Amino acid sequence: MSFTLLKGSCPVCSGTRRDCRQSNQTGLIFCFAHEANPANYIFRGQDKIGFGMWQSSCDAQAFSDEIRAERRREFLANEAMRKQQQILNQLSSRERDRHYREILSQLSLSSEHYMHLRNDRGFTSQQIVARGYRSVSQWQKVAGLFPSNLPGLLPYGSLNVGGSGILCPVRDLEGLIVALRLRLDDSSQGRYRWLTSATKKNPEGATPHLDGELPLAVYEPDVYAGKGIWMTEGLEMKPALTCDRLSAPVLGGGKWSGSPKKAKQSIEYLSHKYGTKLLIFCPDAGDVINTDGVPGRWLGEIKFFESLGYQCRVAWWQQITKEDSDIDELEDYSIVQFITPEQFKATIERFQIGTHVMNGIIHKPKRVNSLISSPVKQLV
After folding, report:
1. pLDDT digits (tens, 9 = 90+) for 75-113
2. Residue where a domain stops, chosen among 60, 82, 98
């Protein structure tokens, strides 16, 4: 290690000693003044001879920033390698579809789950059959040989389901079942789960990702009623019911920009097939007063699709708090109106400011109609 002798110009001891030196490699200053306490310098310990080693605060910050940047570069490089390996190891969409259909053929729907779908959610019997819902119990066993890279499969022929619930197939734009979602009966730790083979014991297990992105759910009506393409939260029952009740195509997701290639492909397919560039976003009840970033996420998703050249509107039926209905819970769709993204943003700001909490109860402001325009029936 080479040094520069400071010869009375040491910033640590202000030149009181003549033997101070600075490393040309690290920039550390070596000073024998043990009583020194200089500003803007950080003590890093002593060398073998007894010299105190000091680092300037600016160098320390630059070093810290560089370390963080280097760690970030390493993380991104490792993530890129992991994603590429994941893509190389994945089953194709058609292979997934074939194996998932075989698994679903072994399962049935319990009477309890059927009654939930029929009476609580509002599906018809025909819709329940068409959607392919199935009941599963914890660590559900399946018979037969399946590839180890089928997401959701565990060793010894079990599905990675931590509790009983309803399996919901996720279909892509070709109608292929590319993933399975689980609606848990017990929602104490969240209601929905992806079926994945990645676990604590096997973190490299197959995940539902395809080409590095999570799948999106495409729902198409038997007869198109001409009201654009609807965009809802979730990939399971909410988009399915919205499609059936409005006779409109639905792209389920909520975080579409997180799967940008899948989102672009799916929306291009639906737009071309149904001859529309109109996208209708359906915020859930209570989203406009949410303070955890949900309103901003909706605006971000709208901006993402606008950048792809689509006309975006927001479905609004005064769904201000959780006590109001979600899009799949409405009984009268004639009350649904469209607002522009700018009006939606203004609505968010108005309700965020006007909402307050008293004794743990949310008190919402008076309902606002002045921003609302374009009923759904006028956009056919």
Report:
1. 777 777 766 676 778 999 999 999 999 999 999 999 999
2. 60
